[in-house]
């Protein structure tokens, strides 16, 4: 099975075998072969019983890249959603208008400007 990590490639066979690249032996007997990827090509591991496993390696590699699997991506999205919800609750609670403890008080009439009070009623109207 081939594995890519940045600019390295790792090929794995089920058991120890001889490794070949374009029909030239490249590695002693081992179940894995690691190399720096430079160009596409056909690799194979070959057992003494003439059983062969072929690998055609072609890909894009870069030194600062990494692979993001589905579980990691899912966890990042869920974490982002949770943090967003928490921030929304905090903002809502901080900006919520405080309600008074009791029933609303009616507003008082504005005071009259200073001066004299109302006239005294006439005794004729009593």
UniProtKB/TrEMBL annotation:
Residues 97-126 are annotated as: Disordered. The keyword Ligase does not apply. It is found in: Cell membrane. One of its GO terms (cellular component) is external side of plasma membrane. It comes from the Eukaryota. It is a single-pass type I membrane protein. Residues 8-68 form the CD3 gamma/delta subunit Ig-like domain. The keyword Isomerase does not apply. One of its GO terms (molecular function) is transmembrane signaling receptor activity. Its main location: membrane. InterPro entries: CD3_esu/gsu/dsu, Ig_4. GO terms for biological process: cell surface receptor signaling pathway; positive thymic T cell selection. Keywords: Cell membrane, Membrane, Signal, Transmembrane, Transmembrane helix. The chain crosses the membrane at residues 73-92. This is T-cell surface glycoprotein CD3 epsilon chain-like. It comes from Pundamilia nyererei. The lineage of its organism: Eukaryota, Metazoa, Chordata, Craniata, Vertebrata.
